[in-house]
Amino acid sequence: MVPSGQVVEKEEPAEPGPDPEPDPELKSWRCLVFYLCFYGFMAQLRPGESFITPYLLSPDKNFTREQVTNEITPVLSYSYLAVLVPMFLLTDYLRYTPVLVLQSASFVAAWLLLLLGRSVLHMQLMELCYSVTMAARIAYSSYIFSLVRPARYQRMAGYSRSAALLGVFTSSVLGQLLVSAAGVPFSTLNLVSLGLLCCSLLLALFLRRPRRSLFFNRDAAARRGAAASELARMNPAAARGAWRDWTPARMLRELGATAHSPQLRLWSLWWVFNSAAYYLIVYYVHILWNVVHPTADSASVYNGGADAASTLLGAITSFSAGFVKIRWALWAKLVIAGVTAAQAALVFLMYSTSNIWLCYLAFVLFRGAYQFLVPIATFQIASSLSKELCALVFGVNTFLATVLKTIITLIVSDKRGLGLPVHSQFFIYFVYFLVLFGVYLLGALVVVLRHFRDGRRAPQPPALSPAEEKAMQPLATLEQSLQREAKA
């Protein structure tokens, strides 16, 4: 068969012509991907980040633990909620590169405020700048898709993520070595971080700006000859339509249509509820470590080592999750319940222990458990969606998780709410994970019991009468003889 639109010469075969010119946007993709991954690695080199809390509580800054817990840190959740949606839209509209430059500039501004600021307001502005860098991470993770063909998406995404994780690990190890082995004070460590961030800002200025993006710039890219988007490959009818017909309202309607999928609902709800508590624990665990192990000796603070170990374990568990092959429709809730129970136990250990090493270990295992489920949830959500709709689903999930995280922060952490000390907050998080475990376990039991009940009710083949069994015997004998001949 010949695909429509192609002409075949039957009388004289057409002579092979010259190879088609490669897409100019993809000619140097290897160099572009390497440069982007190098930028992603350099942008994570902030060796002072693991020691920000002890730096704020040190005589250099002289903030109280209550100020850090109930006035400074809560601003990160509020400001992240405020900038998340605008940053998501600007990333696509401005085609990634300006947002990456903004991210690097915000890192520099945050560390300048950290070093030079003296008041609570200065530290709150620092948290605002840091929230911009968090919201801009989507620019780095999605920029890679504008550089390569769709067939290379999975591999290139692995490269970019690996570069970022390697940067986080290197940064944590470097910071710990400088503090413990070289005796570098926290202020000098943050000066080193500022210098490295200035280097990453220079690298961001030379990033190539793509000609297309996922939502806003598809028509312009098509007019300039850019490669077709993945949606055009998967859904030609949608590609033939005008881009102005693809409105946010239509995308939300499609999102509502996909919400009927049980697996999509399950993993999206896990993403929202688990991520909210996970990031709250990540935000406040450094304050908890200072409570468990208050010390004026910076060389005995091993926050960087704990962050490095948790990053490494998270990378290992994320990688191993790709090899888990089970019937997710049947066992997903039970797996989530088991991981959530482990998280609840680890949070309780962090809350109850007075041994800093046990607290470090519990946090490392806690992050590893969360990172184990992230790639599974990503695959389960994305497997049945187009790239555009997948981006919208993850955006909505992240936004809802941020809203929930902000509400919990306002009630539990903020001085205008309960203003609880960090130890009491971790008990609240333990109860939170315990409730999630109960809900998932109940759902898992319902699914498993329903499965086995339906299996018992499945219709069995009707029993044969003696006469029918006798009539079937010659056929069985013939089949056995044929099988023996085939083996011979």
Task: Please indicate the percent range of residues in DSSP E strands (runs of 2 or more).
Answer: under 5%
Compressed to H and E, one letter per element, the order equals HHHHHHHHHHHHHHHHHHHH
Q: Give the biggest beta sheet.
A: none
SSE-based structural type: mainly alpha
Radius of gyration: 28 Å
Helix content: over 70%
Mean pLDDT: 81
Low-confidence stretches: 1-20, 219-244, 463-467
Topology, number of strands: 0
Ends distance: 40 Å
Bulk shape: globular
The count of helical stretches stands at 20
Account of the protein in words:
This protein has 488 residues and is an all-alpha fold. Helices cover 73% and strands 0% of the residues. The chain is built from 20 helices and no strands. Helix 14 packs antiparallel against helix 17 and helix 15 packs parallel to helix 17. The N terminus is likely disordered.
Briefly characterize the structure.
This protein is mainly α. Helix content is 73%, strand content 0%.
Which keywords apply here?
20 helices; 488 residues; globular; mainly alpha; single chain
Question: Would you spell out the secondary-structure blueprint of this structure?
Answer:
Blueprint: H1 29-43, H2 52-57, H3 65-72, H4 74-93, H5 97-116, H6 120-135, H7 137-143, H8 153-180, H9 186-205, H10 218-223, H11 230-234, H12 236-240, H13 248-258, H14 262-292, H15 303-321, H16 328-352, H17 356-382, H18 387-413, H19 422-457, H20 466-487
